[in-house]
Amino acid sequence: MRRGRASRRTLLHAALAVGSLITISPAAAQAPEPHRLALQISDDDPVKMRAVLDVAANVSRHYSGQGEDVEIAVVAFNGGLDMLLDDRSPVKERLVNFLKSMPNVSFIACGNTLETLAAKEGRRPPLLEGVSVAQVGVAALMDLAEKNWTIVRP
């Protein structure tokens, strides 16, 4: 009789343990939200453009080293748009490498700045392949901030 009670008790404890794991596992299975960083570049200054790329690389390396995800968006407008232009980017080679090797980093060009350059130059300057366009660069930064992205201007 005692042996039966011990077995039942052991089975009950095992069932409770399994049940608690099942209850906990859905919450534990949820992946944590990735860190989100938006970098602003609005100056036609190669030093600042390199700084933006340095920050993106350093932040990406930091979080991946901790086993955490990070999404990074570089938003370029005004003079900073030159960074993303195929025919004049002073950081073209490095930026092309980013586009190939860092899928967590995206580059966004301001459509208004592109239109201004098109009117001034008689043609729309070509963007590097892989760069997306937001109609208003500053509004894109505001939208990201409202979605809890951290905005930094290196």
From TrEMBL:
<feature type="signal peptide">
    <location>
        <begin position="1"/>
        <end position="29"/>
    </location>
</feature>
<protein>
    <recommendedName>
        <fullName>Sulfur reduction protein DsrE</fullName>
    </recommendedName>
</protein>
<dbReference type="InterPro" id="IPR027396">
    <property type="entry name" value="DsrEFH-like"/>
</dbReference>
<keyword id="KW-0732">Signal</keyword>
<dbReference type="InterPro" id="IPR006311">
    <property type="entry name" value="TAT_signal"/>
</dbReference>
